[in-house]
Amino acid sequence: MNKYILTLLTVSLFFNCEEKMTVSFDDTKSMTILAAYDSYMSNDTESIEKLYSEDAHVFVNSVDSITIKENMKNLAMHHELFDDIKLTWGDGENTRTAFVQTSTYPENDVTLAWFTWNGTGKASGEAYKVPTHVVYVWGDDGKIDRAYLMNDSASFNKEMGVVSQTSQE
Known about the structure:
The protein has 169 residues and is an alpha+beta fold. It has one domain (20-168): Nuclear Transport Factor 2, Chain: A (Roll), CATH 3.10.450. 37% of the residues lie in helices and 36% in strands. Strands 1, 2, 3, 4, 5, 6, 7 and 8 form an eight-stranded mixed β-sheet that branches. Strand 2 (52-60) and strand 3 form a beta hairpin. The longest helix has 15 residues, at 2-16. The radius of gyration is 21 Å and the shape is globular. It starts with a helix and ends with a helix.
């Protein structure tokens, strides 16, 4: 009986001492990401680049990463290909740039963002809407260590095809 009580007590202490994950929506990291999205919409890649650690990895719809410099070139290219770039989430009076939350784990913080990317192709004149999800993993230095972007890149490829076709004519 004593072994049973001791085991039960040990197990309950173990689970009571476990650190829990917390979620917040108006923390510094969530607000930093929302500010970065404002910088993106105004084509300010310098402000965005400062948020990443020097050796950060960015995964864009792939298991293979690109460098921060490559990612900044891609973001700048969006503004070469599209007008009226805007990020939105929600509708009506609840419309905002993005839905952003930061989860704090014992190991690190992870910020999640959901939004619809909107833009009008400069070459095609076509309006695009692309649902997008981004995951940011923060490092010990308070900078983004890894970022994972997931969306359907068909509209970007389509617009690049129109640009390529018109430049060959």
